[in-house]
Amino acid sequence: MNLARESFYSLLFLVSSHLCATIAGIIIARVLGPANKGIIAVVLLYPTLFLTVFSFTAGFGIIYHMGKSEHDSKVLTGSALTLFFVLSVLALTVFLITVIYFREILYKGIDARYLIFVGVSIPFIIMLYYFSSMLQGSMDIKGYNITNRLSSFSNLFLILIFLFLWRLGVIEALIAGISGIVLGGILSFFWAIKKSGGISFDSKFTNILLKDSFKIHFGAIANFVFSRANLFILNYFAIQSEVGFYAIALTIANALFFFSVSLEIGLYPKMAHANIDDAINLVQVATRQMLLITGLVALIMAVFSKGIVLLYGGKAFLPAVTPLLLLLPGIVVYVIPKMLSTLWVRKGWFLPLTFIATGTALFSLIFNFLLIPKFGAKGAALSTAATYGFSSLIAVFLFWKYVKKDVSVLFIPQKSDFVIYREILTIFKK
């Protein structure tokens, strides 16, 4: 697999899907306003929450075992199908219990009709996660990108249909929002089965996969807590327009992850198949290059932040400018742990990663509860940026402690790195 080529193609998928998501977001923001934008942002985050809690983070385990090539892909497909079925039923059961008995606490301000869409999407988002992970682990990056980016395209398509042929309200925006999850889940399921050539069940391997995945599972939950829980906390303590402001700032700032995510998609399976020396060299190049690119784009985004927010939501969303500026430095430095995590997974450091993420999540929660009640969206942004910085310091320390004492290899670009740009330019010309 050519990592530069696959990363470039992944970047094209990300840019085009984000362009669709941006257009859809602009339409929703301008038609429905800050308060409804906040409601939609929170409701569409619940499926991701249930995925995080009930997927048992088996995607990393699938990629890890596919890289080792010790088991037939049919066995991996059977194990993924088994876990999907069992955990989807468990997730739906817990969802119904929370809606019936704890709705005012856990779903404050969320209309019961909106919660129906959460329930419908839960099995499909788990399906998408498991089977697209199989495509990624088999280095079918095209299949992974198509199934995961489908949501943005279908979302925009349905929003335009509703806007011009019907009407666009919160219900219609939610239908559009979950459409891609449903379609992507179904497509990834059939694509993975076709690629593996069938299904074979092995309970022993399923237990091994579950055991390996569980080691990193609480770390994934912790990652969700420090990166997304502030939306729920903000929804609880502040008015919904504040949620809308932060959601807009976060959406714009997260565009900085285009470059690192496009590289990660191919980097995880590449690292899983590489020997340890090649893996270390690869992650060093990836980290310093992503820091350079992300930092430059963040600087441009900061200069034009007001214009970007005005374009996205209009004058009603101008309070989102300050949260956006607070988020940008944190997202730049968060490239470091994102890149280095591919090396930790290559080493099989599932349990240590969980401990690190748990500590980071506690750090985040403390800051969120201290800052959000007083500063609203600005407090959520400041807490997120501080947590990203804290996570980056831990990642650099681990690299220094267990990999290489000279951490400058993560920060200072080298002349040899720029061969990558010539290769990407050649691909772009083609």
Overview of the structural elements:
With 430 residues, this protein is an all-alpha fold. 85% of the residues lie in helices and 0% in strands. It has 18 helices and no strands. The longest helix has 41 residues, at 3-43. It starts with a helix and ends with a helix.
Strand content: under 5%
CA distance, first residue to last residue = 18 Å
Tell me the major beta sheet: none
Integer count of domains: 1
- Low-pLDDT runs of 5+ residues are none
What's the average pLDDT? 86
What are the SSEs and their pairings?
Blueprint: H1 3-43, H2 46-54, H3 58-68, H4 73-101, H5 103-106, H6 112-137, H7 141-165, H8 170-196, H9 203-237, H10 240-253, H11 257-273, H12 276-303, H13 305-313, H14 321-333, H15 335-347, H16 350-375, H17 377-402, H18 419-429
Helix pairs in contact: 1-7, 1-10, 1-11, 2-4, 2-6, 3-6, 3-9, 3-11, 4-6, 4-9, 6-7, 6-8, 7-8, 9-16, 9-17, 10-14, 10-17, 11-12, 11-15, 12-14, 12-15, 14-17, 15-17, 16-17
Provide key terms for this protein.
18 helices; 430 residues; mainly alpha
Q: What is the gist of this entry?
A:
By secondary structure, the protein is mostly helical.
